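U., I forgot to send this yesterday:
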Amino acid sequence: MRGFGAVLLVVALGSVPFSCLGEKDSPKTLHFWDCELAAPRATEIVYDRNGAFITQIAHGGEFGYWPLDEIPERFALATLALEDRRFWTHAGVDVRAILRAAWHDLFGRHKREGASTIAMQVARMQKPGPRGLWQKVQEGATAITLVARFGHEAVLKHYLRLAPYGGGSHGAAHAARFWLDKPLQDLSWAETALLAAVPQAPGAMNLARASGVRRAAARAARAIDALAREGRIDAAQAALAKAQLHAMKPLNPLRRPEDALHVARRYERLVRDGLIATPANDPRIHASIDLPLEARMARLARRYLDAFRDFGARQVAVMVVERGSNAVLAEVGSARFGGGLAEAGGFDFTRVSRSPGSTLKPFVYALAIERGLLAPSDMLADVPEGASGVNNADGLYLGPLSPRQALANSRNVPAANLLRRVGVEENFRFLHDLGLHEIEAPADSFGVAMAIGALPTRLDRLTRAYAMLADDGVLSDLAYAAGQRRAPPRRALSVDTARLITSFLSDPQARLPTFPRYGTLEYPFAVAVKTGTSQGYRDAWTLAYSKRYVVGVWLGRADASPMRELGGAASSARLARAVLTQLHGVKPGEISDESFDPPPGRLAADVGPAPEAALREWLKPGEAPRAATFAPETELKIATPEPDTHVWRNPEQPASLNKLALKLKPLAGAAQVVWYVDGEPFVTADAEETVFWPLRPGRHRIAARLTLRKGFSPSVRVVVE
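Result:
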């Protein structure tokens, strides 16, 4: 406000009535733009479980805007001493200040000065515009009406919510946290005056720079002197405050930790999805994340990833969840930020959908047990006549296995047959209910291959599902913060089923012969662990839980290209073991005798196809082991493929390897058979022999007949894509 313009402002404000836009008034009424006290949404600040800063969540690009329930007296005094000394006595426009500024500007007796009041600054901050006389008239009109409508205290509170304090911070309460990491009411006189000085020129008084601190401290000292003259503070307080201001060094505003980008984005999503809500006057989020643990896990993940780079691994993700509470303690979304397509560190790989390999198998077994279609005493056939063209990854077959052995050895054929027995649709819905996918495609489009990785999922979803197994079958959302909105916990499996699966996954003896003893899957304390490897070695997974933690690890490439024969047991399992060992603080050579709780009401028994191969099992009272039988049949029937088989060719394999196994059910008496495809003879072979038909796209019918005899087996329909 300069000279003659200031006089015009007084005349304009005194000669016309004014009101809010939209009200019906005289044509001579001055309308202005804002009759409300409006502010952007308050910025949330996220702190880890120990109180360390993680991030702040802006809504619109700038930070702050915390409202005040009460104005700390000393901050009000310092602010008004610098910005508007007659705030409580004028109606929103300080006419005396305007006339004084005009006099000084016209006659040049002092430095040119302005006369904007707190209320006028509120009007300008709510509706910024080009500076000029008409802008000042409208600001004055708005200021007078805001004070008349809401009162002086509300207008001052609003100023202290909107005022800029540098570094992108707005509002005194937020600035106190941002610059000094304190509540506003805990600031000293020096700190109070320093912050109160900044809104006049936030860029020039940048508190992160020595020059900015000097300018702000000089202005703050003037506030201290004014308050001392008015008797608001005594001489000793004033001297101490000025000494502290003179010694003030550049401040360190809150900064996100280097390794916490994906964690910060996770909290931004939770806030914007409405899953974390905070009071407007204290929008602090108390996170479950432990930043020192997060940093240790990030370093550990990078170290193990570097060890596997020669095998083509380029990225890694790790999750650590506290068992029971489901609190997420660490979430490493990628090894390093940046990089090309193979690295793509900007992606959070805890949230990227990939083929899970065999990590869904425990849920296939769990559903079969839950439906009463599988008991621990049963025997499952791991034989070449696999279900729907599914074969074991190692090309070997172990014959009759207990469910414990079949799952612990991660055999594909028993899992696929079990999934078919329970039902493709039933398993698809169950996996959906566990939150492992949100796919709306028909279940048949995945078929029994769901058991070995055809159904994509994410690491955070897998970790939550394994936490359900660890929590005796109770499914709960992962907990990221106090007060987070979470679905009520619900029972997804019985305690009996969940503990049986845990006992299968934690039995090192049951993993033989596929996984040798004292390898990457064995721990010096009780751990249930499952690995997974997707087709073509694109993804390596390990999910593991102890009595205290649930850990999920993924290793692979952002571009989903294959690694060089790097499976879960050889890679991600090593990292998972290192993570859990560090979490438990186990020293070399230490061994714990702890174990998981057995299923309630079951008794321990030795079960197996032969006494020398028996394993400890948990059976219901009166339940006897049942062996698998493979009695030969007299009627010619096809064992594999099964009716209505859907087969996908692997485009990355040579055509000579894209074959479908053809095998008959055991037949009494030695004989030869002729295999037919689409009515044409394909090959002659012994009845016990498995033959392999080269896959061709399309719909086909496969049948067999005994040589030199009439009659065919029932034909089997196969679809090849």
